[in-house]
Amino acid sequence: MDIQDTPSWKRILTVSELTGQIQDLLEGRFAHIRVRGEISGLRQPASGHAYFALKDGQSQIRAVIWRSTRLRLPHPPKEGEAVQITGRIALYAPRGEYQIIVDAVTPEGAGNERERLLALHRKLEAEGLFAPERKQPLPYLPAIIGIATSDTGAALQDILRVLESRYPGYHVLLAPCQVQGETAPDSISRALQALIDDGRADVILCGRGGGSAEDLAAFNSEIVVRAIAQSPIPIVSCVGHEVDTSLADFAADLRAATPSVAAEQVMPEKRALLQWLHEMEQRLRHAMQSQLKKKQQLLSSHQSRLQHPSRRLDSARMRCDELQERLSHATQRLTAPQGQKLNSLSQRLQYWAHGPTLPHARSQLSQLMERLAQGAQQQQQQRSNRLQALQQQLSSLSPHAVLERGFAIVRHGDGEILHDSQTVEPGTEISITLAKGGLDAHVTRTHRKQGR
C-alpha cells in the first residue's frame, strides 16, 4: 500500500514532519492578521529587534518586531501598552513555537479614530459620494494611465512592473505625492487635481502599499475622498493589502486589493488581446470566405440561366416556326376526314332532295311529329302528377311541418341537436327552435321518461 493511502492516524511522523505540516497550516491560514492585546515582557536587544508577549485576561502569544519594521513605526512599542498589531503567524521550528511577525503597531487609543471614521463614512454616504450609480466604467484599453502615489514607494514599482509584463509600450503620467503623514491628504488631493487638470489620463490609479492604520490614514481623510468622488476621470483605489479598506475605496470607481491588482484591472494583457484578435480574425475570414462562396455559387447559377437576347430571340423564332409547322399538319389531318364526310353528306342530301322517297318521308315525318307532341304532352302530365305527389310527401316529412304541429327542436350551445336528456347537465345553455322563432334557455333539471 502506498504511504499516501495510509490513514493519517496510522502514519508515524517524525518531529520535523509534524512541525512542517503545522507550519504550513498556520502560516498559510494566518498570513495576515490583526490582534488586540497588551504588551508584556518587552525586550529590545542590541540587534534592534523587539520581542514581547501580547496578552489579554486569559491568553498570551509571543511577538517579534524586526529592526527594519521597528525603525519605521511612528509609535514604538511600550511595556504595558494596549495596542492593535498587524502581522502574520510564523512557526519557529527549532523550538516548535509560533509567534506573530509584526508589521504595524497602533495604540489602542485609536478607537476614537475609528468612531471618527464611522461618523465621516455616514456623512459622506448620506451625501451620495459612495452611491453605485456614480461609478464610472473603466476604459478598456487606456492610452495614458495616471498614477497618484509616492515616487519612491514600492507601490509605483509594483504598478510599473505589472504594466510592463501585460502591455509593453504603455504610457504613464505620474503625479508624485506624499502617502503618509499629516501633509499627505493635501498632497494626494493636489496630485489628483493635477492629473484632472492635465486631462490626458484615461484612468487614474491612486494608492500606496500596506502599512499600519496610521500609515493609511491619509486615504481616510475627507479631502481625499471628495477629490476622488468629484473626479471626471475614472479612479481606481489601491490602498494597502487585501484586508485594508479605506474611505477612498468607497468613493473610487473601482477598488483594487493591491497596487499590482489595480494595474492588472486597468490594463488587459497584450498576449491575451492578440490571441483574441487572432481568433476574431480567423472567424471573420471564415465567415467572409463562406459568404463569398455562397455569392459565387449564386452568381454562377444566375449566369447559367442568363442568355444573350439574340440567342433567346433565335430560340423563340425557331420555336415559332416549329409550332406553325405543327399547326399546319394538324389542320390538314383534321380537315381531310371532315371534307370527305362533307362530300358524302352533300351527295346524300342531293339524293333525298331529288329522289322519289322525299314526299313519303315528309308524310312520315309529319305523323312522327304529331305522335311526338302527343307523347310529350302525356309524359309531361304524368311527371306533373308525380311531382305533386312528391311535394305532398315532402311537406309531410318537413321539420317545419312537424314544428307546426307543436313540436320543437332542442340544441346544445354548439348547435348539436339533443336526443337524450342524460347528455346535458343542469345549468347547460340550450336553444329551442319553434315553428315561429326560437328560445334560449338554461337546463334546471333533467329526468328520463321510460320508453319512447
From TrEMBL:
<keyword id="KW-0378">Hydrolase</keyword>
<dbReference type="GO" id="GO:0008855">
    <property type="term" value="F:exodeoxyribonuclease VII activity"/>
</dbReference>
<comment type="function">
    <text>Bidirectionally degrades single-stranded DNA into large acid-insoluble oligonucleotides, which are then degraded further into small acid-soluble oligonucleotides.</text>
</comment>
<feature type="coiled-coil region">
    <location>
        <begin position="362"/>
        <end position="393"/>
    </location>
</feature>
<dbReference type="GO" id="GO:0009318">
    <property type="term" value="C:exodeoxyribonuclease VII complex"/>
</dbReference>
<dbReference type="Pfam" id="PF02601">
    <property type="entry name" value="Exonuc_VII_L"/>
</dbReference>
<feature type="compositionally biased region" description="Low complexity">
    <location>
        <begin position="297"/>
        <end position="307"/>
    </location>
</feature>
<dbReference type="InterPro" id="IPR020579">
    <property type="entry name" value="Exonuc_VII_lsu_C"/>
</dbReference>
<comment type="similarity">
    <text>Belongs to the XseA family.</text>
</comment>
<feature type="domain" description="OB-fold nucleic acid binding">
    <location>
        <begin position="13"/>
        <end position="105"/>
    </location>
</feature>
<keyword id="KW-0175">Coiled coil</keyword>
<dbReference type="GO" id="GO:0005737">
    <property type="term" value="C:cytoplasm"/>
</dbReference>
<keyword id="KW-0269">Exonuclease</keyword>
<dbReference type="GO" id="GO:0003676">
    <property type="term" value="F:nucleic acid binding"/>
</dbReference>
<feature type="domain" description="Exonuclease VII large subunit C-terminal">
    <location>
        <begin position="129"/>
        <end position="441"/>
    </location>
</feature>
<feature type="region of interest" description="Disordered">
    <location>
        <begin position="288"/>
        <end position="314"/>
    </location>
</feature>
<protein>
    <recommendedName>
        <fullName>Exodeoxyribonuclease 7 large subunit</fullName>
        <ecNumber>3.1.11.6</ecNumber>
    </recommendedName>
</protein>
<dbReference type="GO" id="GO:0006308">
    <property type="term" value="P:DNA catabolic process"/>
</dbReference>
<comment type="subunit">
    <text>Heterooligomer composed of large and small subunits.</text>
</comment>
<dbReference type="InterPro" id="IPR003753">
    <property type="entry name" value="Exonuc_VII_L"/>
</dbReference>
<dbReference type="InterPro" id="IPR025824">
    <property type="entry name" value="OB-fold_nuc-bd_dom"/>
</dbReference>
<keyword id="KW-0963">Cytoplasm</keyword>
<keyword id="KW-0540">Nuclease</keyword>
<dbReference type="Pfam" id="PF13742">
    <property type="entry name" value="tRNA_anti_2"/>
</dbReference>
